Each structure stands twice: as structure tokens, then as C-alpha cells.
Amino acid sequence: MSDHEIKIQGDELPIGSYTYKEFLNMATLFHNYPAPGLMLGGYMVEAAKARMPEGTLYEVLAETPWCLPDAAQMLTPCTIGNGWLKVENLGRYAVTLYDKHTGEGLRVAVCPKKLDKYGEYKTWLYKLKPKPEQDTLLLQRQIALAGASVCNIEKVTVTDSILKKRSKGKIADCPVCGEPYPRYHGAICRACQGDSPYRQILGDSTVSPAFPDTIKTVPIEEAVGKEAMHDMTRIEPGKSKGPAFRKGHTFEVGDLCRLQRIGKNRIYVAESELGDDWVHENECARSFAKLMCGENVEIKGDPKEGKMELVSAASGMLTVDDGVLEAFNMVPGVMAACRKGYTLVSSGVSIAGTRAIPLFLQRAEFDKALRVLEDGPIFNVKPLRSARAGVLITGNEVFNGLIQDRFEGIIAGKLAALGSSIEKTIICPDDRKHIAGAVEKLLQQGCDLIITTAGLSVDPDDVTRQGLVDAGLDNILHGAPILPGAMTLLGRINGVQTIGVPACALFHKHTSMDLLLPRLLAGVKITRSDLAAMANGSMCMECAHCSFPKCPFGK
What we know:
Mean pLDDT: 92
Shape: flat
CATH class of the largest domain: Alpha Beta
CATH architecture of the largest domain: 2-Layer Sandwich
Strand content: 15-25%
């Protein structure tokens, strides 16, 4: 829309120090045309500016990416580039100017009730008609006459996350694409993680992987006296799978029939040295596995069929750096897979495997994969400590002898299975003072793990959490996306790990306690984010024949 298409009648409300026509021309230059949202945004931004205390150093928060941010960039020093304009796509046509030090400010938002006398205005905002059917001239006229009168203006205080100054932090070269990126995005840049806005063009090297010039293919009749370039697999369905020939084997006449039986009619042979531009699959597997091994994880033997196995050197909990594992698998031509993290493993069992996909990996791709692994090992096995648990059983009905306690036996069994034991058990009523006092006695007894039972729900008698707080509970996490066990409580009292077990553990064989107690004993930190990540898979199927932990619960 050009300037002359909008009729200026002289009664249009000014936008700050600009006449309506002046701002319209500015909008045309900045935005390519005077979009209704931009003209409205001008009135909204100026309404907030006029009410800000003089001398305030302010920043801007726009709640939509449509047009409104441009008004802020035109009328204030705040831009997306300098970081003083933040856009949170909440889908609401609202803008806030706030003190950059205190967060206190003014929010201006369109009020639907104030649009009743501006029919075309309302049609545009709610998209009641397709754009070609809207009366744009009438809409612009209504915007110019209404100004900010169609908006609500309220005092607000933005959150700390909005006040936080943006920072790129440490910059590193992405090991996949080689370009600099903010290191906090992960082990590789966001584009290489799959967020690239560009279509990946698959070249011939991806469809038909490049291969060393020094390696040739010959019929098996010419194989006699030649060395096998790699392990050659033989599969007997339902019986066995393994190498029929190992790398380095020198073929004899008697091997030709065996080669045919495993489906080999041609083999690779080396005409000369491989050179530095290529890495054999076995060398890749050894190098990757070495860097992946952390605490109590070791390499098992030599590569087999191009794959390297990693095994646990101790019994404990397997922990996996998911970010580095994912980044490694984003590098073309390599792979690593493992058991599910946070599962318990015995000493000597296989926990992970890694290999190159092609027989020979280009050195550049090999180096990329190694750079991803520079951040440290991916796999660790954390031994479980032997805890001396103090058990606090709450409930008036148990304390008064109305029912017999069953919790102590359940907890004792779960602790014993993990190599721990109960040091002392105290039964107390649903009373905050009694609960806090009981905790103190358990700590004096030398208990290094506090387990409480029940009293964590919504009933007025459920005061276990309050009693624990009185006893000094901090780092509190109450509630977990785990069924059964949603009311689980985690925290520390004077540095001692504390877990509150909901009453559901009396009925259900396996609950949140079975998922979280091993983590505590392994010394694995549990955050709210960790709990949230457990939600997918943490609903027990309550099978008639329980196979936990060999089931999906907690995985």
C-alpha cells in the first residue's frame, strides 16, 4: 500500500512526536508498507514510553513476532540486534517496556472489549475475513482515530529469565561443520543437531561412499595368497553369527569354497599402503571406544566385525551423557549404542558398542567424531554405596497400634537388594514436632540416608513434609511424574539424602522408590529437569506377572 492510498484527514492521533503521516512514511521505509499491526504497535509503544519514569533505562518485551517488534525498533533504542528487544512468541498482541535493572514496567495489550465500536479493527484482529476482503482503508482510519485507547495498560514485573543478559558464552568450532558456535548449544552446533533451515543436498559421496584408491576388488579365484581386509561374517539362522575369517587372514585354496558358502564372490585387496587420508573400521572402533570409557567402563578385547564392545568393570548404575552420545551419532559414518542410562548393571556385562559404518572412514570424518568425544567420556558405571538408612514411619494409626506396620519390611527388602540396610526405625504420629524430633534422633544415630513413609498427600493430617522442613530439609523436590509414586519427596537434611515414599508403596510392588533409590545410592544428582525427563516411560503397566526391571517401567 502506498502513501497516497491512505487519506490523511488531519484528525489522526499522533504517534509520539510524529504525526500520523510522518510515522506512516517511516513505516513504509522500514517495513516496506504501513502494516496495520505496525501502526497499532506505534501507538502501543508510545503509550508505554509516556508513562515510564523519566530517566529510566528500559528494555522492550514483545509478545508476538508479527509487526509489533518493528514498532519498538523504530521508536526506541531497543533492537533485536543489540539485545534490548526480546521477543517471546506468546501469540498475544502486547508489548512491555521495563526497567532493565529492576524489571518493573508497563504492559500495553489490546483489549477485546474496547474494540466493539471499531468493527473493521475487530475483523482484522480476529481474522474474521480473509485479508483481500478486509477494508484496509477503513481499518487504518479506525487505528488512527483509536490510538492506544483500545488497549489496557498495567504495571508488571518481568521474570529473572527476561532480565538476564544474553551471552554467547564460550565459542567453539563445531566438530561436524567446522563453523564457530556458542558452546552451550551442545557438543555440536544446532544446525548439525538437525535444526538447520536448509535442505541437505546428498552428494554422490553419501549415496555411494568414497573409497580408497589403493583398495581394489578381485574375484575370489584371485584371493589365494591375499589378506582379508576385514572380518567376514557367517550367519547360521537361529544358531550363530560370527566371523568366518578375521582381518589379516591369508586366503588359501581351501578357503574358496567357504567364501562361496557365506555369499562372497569378490573380496577387497590392498594394492599399496592405505595412506593417512583413510582410517580402517577397526582403528575407528578402538579410538572411539577408548574415549567413550569413563569410570568403571573398559574395552572388551579387540574389534569384532568392525565393532568394539564396552563392558562394565564394576557393578553399579550406568550413566550416559546423552548430549555427547547424540552429537557423536550426528557425525556421518559413525555410530554408538548403549543400554538405557540409569539402569543397574553387573560387573563384566556389555553396556555399549561403537563402530564406523563404512569399511574405511575418511580421516576428516574420523577427526570430527574424535572432536565430539573431547568433552569427556560418555559412559560411566557408578557403584552403589552401602547406606545405613534411618526409616521414619509416620501415621497415627500405626503409632497408636490400630494397624500393624508393613512399611519397614518393604523398605528393608528394597535396601537389601541394593546392598544397604536399615540402621534404625522410628514410628511417630502425624505431628510436625514429633517428625522433626525423630529425624534428629536418626541423624544422631549416624544414619546417612533418611527414608520417610506416607504423609505426603493432600489430606490435612499429611504433615510429613512440613515436619521434615522443620528438621532442616532443603533442596526440596516434591512431586514426580512417576506412577505409582507421584507424591514422592526428595531433598537433604544437613547434607543427608532424604526420600519420602508415598503410601502407594504399601500396595504396589514397584513404585518411584525403585527408580530413584538406586540413583541416590549411586550419588547421581537428581534435579527437577531429571524428574521431568523420566515422565515418558514412568507409568507402571501393573502386569499380572511382574518382570521389573526387565520391563518398560522407568525407561
